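ok here's the first one, seq then struct tokens
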Amino acid sequence: MSTKPLLFKNARLVDPDTGREDKGGLLVRDGVIQDLGPQLTQAVDADIIDCGGQVLAPGLIDMRAFIGEPGGPYRETLKSAGEAAAAGGVTTVVSMPDTSPVLDDPAVIDFIVRRARDTSIVNILPAAALTKGLKGEEMAEIGRLKEAGAIAFTDGVRSVTNAQVMRRTLTYARDFDALIVHHVEDPDLVGQGVMNEGEFASRLGLSGIPREAETIMLERDMRLVRLTGGRYHAAMISCADSAEIVRSAKAKGLPVTCGVSINHLSLNENDIGDYRTFLKLSPPLRHEDDRQAMIEALNDGTVDVIVSDHNPQDVENKRLPFAEAADGAVGLETLLSAAMRLVHSDRVSLPKLLRALSMKPAEILGLPAGRLKIGAPADLVLFDPDAPYVLDKRQLKSLSKNTPFDEARLEGQVTITMVAGRIVFDRRSM
């Protein structure tokens, strides 16, 4: 339906596609960007929002979020995930197939598409299972699942250890131009490990997970991509050796991209401290040298996207001894604020950061969003990059509160989130 145009004026426009930063305005009409630039200071017959110099940028696109619905609505529903995403400036979320039932049937994919459209205030796009039942044994029906609305194919937190199965899925997906997203972690090498292998794990008396659990699986996948030519995205890498593997594959022209969790850019193994289970993640938090390597990989383009790895867990699964606690942390609402730490410490420029949070995910997924340009969807976030606050987990909109940033001092608060020209979050009215 046609609605009255809306002008954002006096904004700091940041376009991650071109890297340009301009002071000016942006006009939204009928759900798309109609005009923008320094010259745009007024518009006839339009509602006006004075941004007061705050940053106006494309809405964030999160390529990795676990949502409990269907099967685990006590953890997170599509509705609550949408509210959490909107509060964090995220306008599009890719949901993982680790649900009950698993998203390996076209009818279930269709249900998620319809349910998300009816209940979520942001775009939620389902990723379908790569193998049936997430068992890693038999390839899912990629063609039918894509037709039903699957945006990508992944086994979520599980790795496909059978190289022949992975080869077949890459080959089949290539013919449908489908994207394979893989969790690179060899479960046999992980074994009983619960955190990064090294001196700190020994001090805590916890079993370690070697970096090789990630790098061996990643190296195997690069060779299979070379063999098949299928489009491949490593869901998350976490160590320096993995960055070198991806860097080498890209230099050879392979159709490879990769992501990194905001947790692995902001935190290291020392943050686990006295067995803080909210920081028990998969892959585990690494050594500080690996964190620095991830930042450098983001700067040089080896790392394409930053994800929240939003994985809500209830209290019963987290209030346990560290070794027994479930992996995962919520992250949709803190994704932007935590990422702004890299900007405030002068490690990453704001346009480059937003590129990894919006434009590159859109490019990889084939979405028209992620850019400030005429005709693009009006999926936007207005935020104050310098606004300080202390995170109170009780105020999170997610149903689960397992955030690694509880009581952390953060900078950068979302003021307005807009999806398809409709304001879905407005801090000014809170």
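and now the second one, same deal
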Amino acid sequence: MRATTAPGRAGPDRTVRLDHLVRLTTPTGLFEHALGSEPRVEHGMCVDDVARALVVMARSEHSDPEAEILTRTYLTFVRSAQRPGGLLHNRRSPDGQWLDEPSTDDHWGRAVWALGTAAAHLWDGELAAVAKLGATSALAARSPHPRAMAYAALGAVELLRADPRHGGALRLLDEARAVLPRPGSDLGWPWPEARLTYANAVLPEALMAVGDVFADDALLADGLGLLDWLVTVQTTDGHLSMVPAGGRGPDDDRPGFDQQPIEVAALAEAAARARRLTGDRAWDVVLERCTAWFEGDNDAGVPVRDAATGGGFDGLEPTGVNQNQGAESTLAWLACAQLVGAGRPRAAR
């Protein structure tokens, strides 16, 4: 597999290396967990991770045969999880058996995000058409979970790039505008939940994305303000100090551990969107801090990625890292490396 370098930055090596992602991938899908760098086959696979992998591959500049194999594998996996009414399975055994009931939990939202992104960005027209069909099917459903709806909104926004009049995407975005949580009135804790939990930045990112589509300046401002606050409460001495796995409330001690790479990736995704929508170069600083967190500018002072293979370590601990390199953490690093040069202004759609 060829490696590509994220454009627009000098200094540390931000080459997007897919070696470890290839190691975790089989013709069926993508193993969720690893022991060190070796896949833990017994733990199976899930749409959550495969959707993240499809997003990374759809946005990549790879067009070689191995990249096409990875992309087809991930797209086929997500499509095979789909059921009538827009529901999706999540968990799958190594031999291809679905192990859970289809639902609209968070994996559904991530699948919509991935399918919409693939429909808009894949270099292969046939694959893009398959992704569009999948996104259209999934958009028939709705989720009661805010993060699932936020991810689905991001997917619907991407789908509009491929089809600006897509009715299913526009309907979901209109409903998301009404149900996505908005900032609270407490200036010290405007977060719309009592605690920060996981993938937090997807909520303000969705507010920004939906606000942009509908030219809703108030919604866009809410998203930008909430993201700015989220960055502030996760920054210490010029580096990111992320929400730990157990979450964070207003009175919790800091720093907290274990810090999860997925939090950094979500923040990078949101910062890149804020940069594109506003042209404000301050968001470049946030993107830089996200990649720097993986490179060792963090609360423990150690890298959270394997520069040689593109693997990501499963968590930042007080004195080091969790040495396991699972799919979620690996894709979090790859997404950050990919985004570091992507947060440039673009013309409004």
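notes on #2: Residues 1-10, 342-349 have pLDDT under 50 and may be disordered. DSSP finds twelve helices and twelve strands in the chain.
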